Amino acid sequence: MKPRWKGKDSEAKAFADPMSKIVLQLQSSLIQSETCGLLSSCSVLVEVDAELADLLNRACFGRPRITAEKDKKWFQLDMEEAFYLCFSLKCLKVVGEDGCIKSNEELWEYLKSKKAVFPVSYKAYSHLRHKNWVLRSGLQYGVDFVAYRHHPALVHSEYAVLALSEGDNDLNGRLRVWSDVHCTVRLCGSVAKTLLIVIVNNNSQGAISTSCLEHYTVEERTITRWNPEQSREDRAVLQNQTK
């Protein structure tokens, strides 16, 4: 499936301002400003100025949160987004409810306690983010993420992403039978997306600490519906071959 750009100049704009460059700008800005986020249940809140809000929006991290405080702007980061900025990009610090900055290991334990499959979902998220895919929540499509080639304002999402752990049926809970696969693929097709399965294998390392992540391996699989009309051989070609 080819990218579906929104407008004639969208592809050119994306090419002129690659996502990798925007993320580097965001990383630099967060480091220089020594930005801290506030841990709030299953998300992280970041107070931002106009410049940082623009970078977060362009890099597609978090969403602006409307509050009664007119003089303050806040962005709300999902669990995977916040940990990616903390652990992978090392440009954000997170303050817990006790007012103390959490270490990566403390934040890792906290996020695991809130979401049992966090190690798998984070590995899948970071794997695709490192490839400069933009990931947003896929809740409305019944998947973990939707993946964009660039900013959602420029292009439609191409993939509906499911993050599954290799051989751990208790955690997966999805695509156990063919009817699940068929329903998911059909739904993805109806919204012009390809189902991308990201299979994470922990290689018996568990998820005791963040150091386990470097031993995880990732396999990507795309699943699409078989269309008999597209797969049927051209009759005209067959007739010419028999002459």
Describe the structure.
The chain has 243 residues and is an alpha+beta fold. It is built from ten helices and ten strands. It has helices spanning 10-16, 19-33, 50-59, 79-88, 104-114, 118-130, 169-172, 178-190, 228-231, 235-242; strands at 36-40, 43-48, 63-65, 73-77, 93-95, 134-137, 145-148, 159-165, 194-201, 217-223. A hairpin with a 7-residue loop joins strand 3 (63-65) and strand 4 (73-77). The mean pLDDT is 89.
Shape: globular
End-to-end gap: 35 Å
Q: Helix content range of the residues, please? A: 25-40%
The total count of helices amounts to 10
Question: Can you give me a brief rundown of this structure?
Answer:
The protein has 243 residues and is of the alpha+beta class. Helix content is 39%, strand content 21%.
List keywords for this structure.
single chain; 243 residues; alpha+beta; five-stranded mixed beta sheet; 39% helix
Give the helix/strand layout.
Layout: H1 10-16, H2 19-33, E1 36-40, E2 43-48, H3 50-59, E3 63-65, E4 73-77, H4 79-88, E5 93-95, H5 104-114, H6 118-130, E6 134-137, E7 145-148, E8 159-165, H7 169-172, H8 178-190, E9 194-201, E10 217-223, H9 228-231, H10 235-242
Parallel strand pairs: 1-5, 8-9
Antiparallel strand pairs: 1-2, 2-4, 3-4, 6-7, 7-8, 9-10
Helix pairs in contact: 2-3, 4-5, 4-6
